[in-house]
Amino acid sequence: MDTRYFNAVKQPEAGTKLGGSVIRSGGLVAFPTETVYGLGANGLDGEAVNKIFEAKGRPNDNPLILHIAKKSDLKDLWKSVPERARLLMDEFWPGPLTMVYLKSSRVPEEVTGGLDTVAVRMPIRAAGVPIAAPSANLSGKPSPTTADHVKADMDGRIDVIIDGGPCNIGVESTVVSLMGGAVTILRPGGITREMLEAVIGPVNLSPAVLAPLKQGEAAASPGMKYKHYAPDAQVIVGTGSLPDMAAKLIAEYDRREAEGLTCIIFATEETRCFYRGKRYVIIGERKNPLTLCESLFAQFRAQEGKADVILCEALPETDMGLAYMNRLLRSAGFKTI
Ligand code: TXA
Ligand code: MG
Fold it and tell me: Is 99 in the pocket of ligand 1 (CB under 6 A)?
């Protein structure tokens, strides 16, 4: 398949129009959102949705998020709209919040992997039909935050790539489940736990956000079962407080280099002074974890073929630090030192 490339930086409306028409005719379109690039198909057309799983090499039981253009589209996709959903969407849509609730009969089972719930979000940029879209990477790879990342994974596998420039949050949307009368974070993201709690009070955190699933434990979100966000290199997370954490990373660096491996440290503005004489790259500021989220996946991709081991710093698991630690720990297969 020849993949068409459209530069929508200067012509966002033409990009949306092209994407919409290809999606309505059953094709696959990669498009930018405020979080990461998505790979979209008509979410009401099971056959089109199947092509997404094929292009990504994604397991069929890992369900997709439906992306809508206006809040009123939600009632057609869910059995009913609970009050807490109304409160959350009034505050956070359009934006990086995905909500999971009982699906209506209009939603094809291809979208939900056979579950009786469906995930819905309203991104800042949207098209006409509900668009089923996972992140536009090959399954298991870091999510793409630029059109070049999409091209690297998807060229020849999809119809169109719409380039809208780099995404600004850099990690995928917050996913919450509204089942069981509660609000439970399944995946942390740009809408933080603190922001949610300011609107609706206490919010649960699924244990799988920061720890591996135990043997035989059911996944609240099927995505938690699979290895995720993995760069080619081994990722290791240094924990504890500074400067001990930096000392542990340096000791690990020296040990691995002595074994003949190439190491790099993902440092921050605040910690660069610790790593003099080592190979490091500054990926953001500890005091502003959003800057680290924005660049993490792009920095992983930039190390492809260059580093065998990537040494990273843990952050406090508050505000955007929670989303950062969730992605980092999963990339590391939960390997901490
Ligand atoms: O920011 C985002 O959310 C991006 C952009 C493209 O919108 N999309 C994205 O989709 O990250 P994906 O497919 O890579 O991740 C969706 C996550 C998966 O972990 C999936 O298992 C979970 O949401 N999910 C989807 N439907 C679900 C459901 N009904 N119940 C529980 N988890 C669900
Ligand atoms: Mg993904």
Answer: no
Minimum-distance ligand 1 atom for the alpha carbon of 187 = 19
Contact 222 CB / ligand 1 (< 6 Å): yes
Q: What is the pLDDT of residues 25-69, one digit of tens each?
A: 999 999 999 999 999 999 999 999 999 999 999 998 999 999 999
pTM (2 decimals)? 0.95
83-105 per-position pLDDT tens digit? 999 999 999 999 999 999 999 99
Atom of ligand 1 nearest to the CA of 103: 29
Query: Angle, nearest 10°, between helix axes 193-200 and 83-92?
Result: 120
Question: How many Å apart are CA 111 and CA 216, to the nearest integer?
Answer: 25
As given in the structure block, the two tokens for residue 161 are 């790539």
59: three-class secondary structure by DSSP: coil
**Ligand 2 centre from 78 Cα, in Å?**
22
